[in-house]
Recover the amino acids of this structure.
């Protein structure tokens, strides 16, 4: 995308996500009841059809997110393996993508048998620490090599790959990847429900009672959204800018390149995700596709409509918000097309269980 469009689009996506996430947080209490899930909030306003539509979209997005993170985990393990092999001049190296995808899938298989993350609360802290470590390492390595590599320091117009059509599809796919990175709406209500708040009032309680009970979690969640979006935007911009300044045209997609029932279903899910990751190890393309598909409905349309129907703002405000929803739909359509085109192109030159 280059030095101009890249940072602008990162900041624009951050602002849209921040704005719609604040609207969604305000809808924690809808129609006189506190809701524990995203689909529950949507169902309270849009009825049974809205509930099922949002639930399907939410869970489909979560499955695609699992696929994307399996791909990047296997790629990162593959990069470490190749680095070790190069340092020791090893001729035979355990560095095939599919091999490390199976290793990571095996780890998920074990962790997937836990009843819930409440039984292993440290996993969330560990995951956040790994993300920060990845980002800090990327920034540090890139900053330490500024001006030392023969790839240039990036360009205003971004990478020039193939024809103008290819360039356009790459830009759209990259925009989808940015949207993927900022999609916090997906589980925002579920996270908000973990904040301490009183139970719903007994039958007959007034809407004012519910609003009063929800005020504390809403205030805390809004503060958390501001802080998290500021941190995410700063880190993403730093990784992108330092990486592009260091590597220029050579910048890669990955900067560092019942118990029985639970056992059966979770094992099958992990096996399926791992197998699909082996079939499509294209992290940039998958993240772009996931971000594109989920952006309009999950991040924009449902939160905006929830807020409009529960808060009943002035007509001009409704018009402005729905214009934003319409723009989000156009972005989703364009970025989905770009990501699908890149997926077809990447898959055409891929060999299953090959070195790739």
């Amino acid at each position: 995308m280059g030095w101009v469009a890249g940072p602008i689009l990162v900041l624009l996506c951050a602002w849209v996500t921040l704005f719609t996430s604040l609207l969604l947080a305000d809808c924690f209490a809808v129609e006189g009841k506190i809701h524990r899930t995203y689909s529950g909030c949507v169902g309270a306003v849009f009825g049974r059809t809205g509930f099922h539509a949002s639930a399907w979209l939410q869970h489909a997005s979560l499955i695609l997110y699992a696929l994307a993170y399996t791909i990047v985990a296997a790629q990162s393990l593959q990069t470490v393996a190749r680095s070790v092999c190069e340092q020791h001049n090893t001729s035979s190296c355990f560095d095939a993508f599919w091999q490390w995808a199976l290793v990571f899938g095996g780890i998920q298989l074990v962790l997937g048998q836990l009843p819930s993350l409440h039984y292993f609360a440290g996993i969330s802290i560990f995951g956040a620490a790994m993300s920060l470590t990845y980002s800090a390492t990327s920034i540090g390595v890139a900053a330490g090599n500024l001006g030392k590599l023969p790839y240039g320091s990036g360009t205003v117009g971004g990478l020039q790959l193939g024809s103008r059509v290819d360039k356009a599809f790459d830009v759209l796919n990259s925009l989808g990847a940015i949207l993927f990175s900022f999609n916090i709406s997906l589980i925002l209500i579920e996270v908000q429900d973990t904040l301490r708040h009183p139970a719903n009032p007994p039958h007959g309680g007034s809407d004012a009672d519910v609003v009063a009970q929800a005020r504390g979690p809403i205030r805390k969640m809004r503060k958390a959204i501001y802080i998290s979006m500021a941190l995410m935007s700063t880190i993403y911009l730093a990784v992108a800018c330092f990486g592009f300044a260091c590597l220029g045209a050579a910048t890669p997609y990955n900067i560092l390149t019942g118990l029985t029932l639970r056992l059966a279903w979770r094992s099958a899910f992990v096996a399926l995700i791992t197998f699909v990751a082996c079939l499509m190890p294209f992290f940039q393309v998958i993240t772009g596709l996931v971000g594109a598909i989920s952006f309009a409905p999950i991040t924009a349309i449902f939160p905006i409509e929830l807020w409009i129907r529960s808060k009943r703002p002035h007509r001009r405000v409704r018009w402005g918000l729905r214009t934003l929803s319409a723009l989000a739909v156009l972005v989703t359509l364009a970025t989905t097309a770009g990501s699908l085109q890149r997926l077809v192109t990447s898959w055409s030159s891929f060999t299953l269980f090959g070195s790739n």
